[in-house]
Amino acid sequence: MTDLSGHDNSTCARVWQVLRMAHDRVERRLATEFDEIDLTITDFDVLLYLHSHSSDVVRICSIQESVALSQPALSRLIARLVDSGLVLRSGSEADGQAIQVILSDAGRAFTSQAIDVHNAIIHAVLTTRFTPREQEVLLQGLSHHSMSAPSLADSSRILRFNPPNLHRTVVLSSTRINRYTIN
User: Fold this and answer.
1) Burial category of 179 from C-beta neighbours within 10 Å (exposed 0-12, middle 13-18, buried 19 and up)
2) Cβ-contact 50, 107 below 8 angstroms
3) Going from the N-terminus, what domains does the chain have, and what CATH number goes with each?
4) pTM assigned to the model
5) What is the pLDDT of residue 178?
6) 87-91 and 99-103: which strand pairing?
7) Pairwise CA distance, residues 68 & 11, whole Å
8) pLDDT at 138
């Protein structure tokens, strides 16, 4: 059955179900593993943003564009990360009202470990189910259709893989999985 726009309703529903189930499966594993190190997925998203923009001056408003949080919620999250010693916060010299944030030394070390856990889970739960070519197509397709997705170049930098060398990187990352005993 198709709707007025010519889309096959059953295909659209199936795509949604499969995407949602994959997301839920990954999210549950991440939440479980991150809970062991007292980290939420949203905390990780902010730390990952700061990690991937470590050479930039990062204002809180620029982080808000990449995480799904209101400004007050993001401010509270940043305050918790500052209190935990993972993030340093300061006023902007150029704009007295803007707040800049960077990872502390402890935050860089913690985020690197969290990225290793994240990558191991993504590899075990998601990428091992696809060939290298399918992984590239998936990344391109989701990046193309997501309003807030980073470019492919940004995605490869953030997720620590280079799509043309994806197979080699995935094979190398399997050694990380052994450290985290992921099923």
Assistant:
1) exposed
2) yes
3) 9-180 (1.10.10.10)
4) 0.70
5) 28
6) antiparallel
7) 28
8) 84
